[in-house]
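User: structure tokens for this one?
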Amino acid sequence: MAVLVLAEHDSRKVKKATLNTVAAAQKLGADIHVLVAGHQALEAAKEACQIAGVKKVLHADAPHLGAFLAENVAALIVSLAKNYSHVLAPASSTGKDVMPRAAALLDVQQVSDISAVESADTFVRPIYAGNALATVKSKDPIKVITVRTTAFDAVAASGGAAQVENVTAPADSGLSAFVSREVSKSERPELTAAKIIVSGGRGMGSGENFTKVLEPLADQLGAAMGASRAAVDAGFVPNDWQVGQTGKIVAPDLYFAVGISGAIQHLAGMKDSRVIVAINKDEEAPIFQVADYGIVGDLFQVVPTVVEELKK
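Assistant:
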């Protein structure tokens, strides 16, 4: 049987997390179909057809799918699931919202946040904030899975030649309604897709210091901005900057941790970064245990010095 991947998109473009999820699906050795659910999202469906390794794109178009409410998208997945052995989605806020509901409706147990595929029924997933790995074997007839996207290299966004097949969505469940959405706009790269991230912690002291001290560094590096939960909880920066177990999981090529002590919750979200640079005045800070390069010093002196060196 084939494998179904739930695409994340903005109605025009497919998000990179989908490419990582398709890479995980390829490990299962079956045909891969991608589900693009939404309203007036044909452009995204056509883009999904270009993804390498995808055999078919299912396009479900309905007004009540436009807001991607979990109740309606899960019902759509359930209506299609009998044709698939596995249903996968990124372990993002969207995947975490939709997939547990779909699994419950299918009466199967979800396998969450997988980081490796050992066989069609056996998967590896991190537990205890990433400090241990569990190997899980599922005997359910349909495997409902969320994928830790940072654990799989994205497939090519082009080179595929799949065809679009229109599917009919179930009627609006009426269980929830879309009220409003506040979207933060930034010229910086998206946090989960950025190759370089500059993150600040409680040591930054204020949101103003993020602007004065960290933004020049991020500007020089073309980096995304992130933060620890402590900085977010203190109101220094918005929630969507949070990196960690209860925030976003990232694995950039370069991660700057500035004024971040390295609590286990934060490490769970960024320790897979290729190169980690830590700047902290406390030489005993746990962040130095995972850092490739560590600078012990006052961040308000060190960071401007780094910025000046980068300008040369």
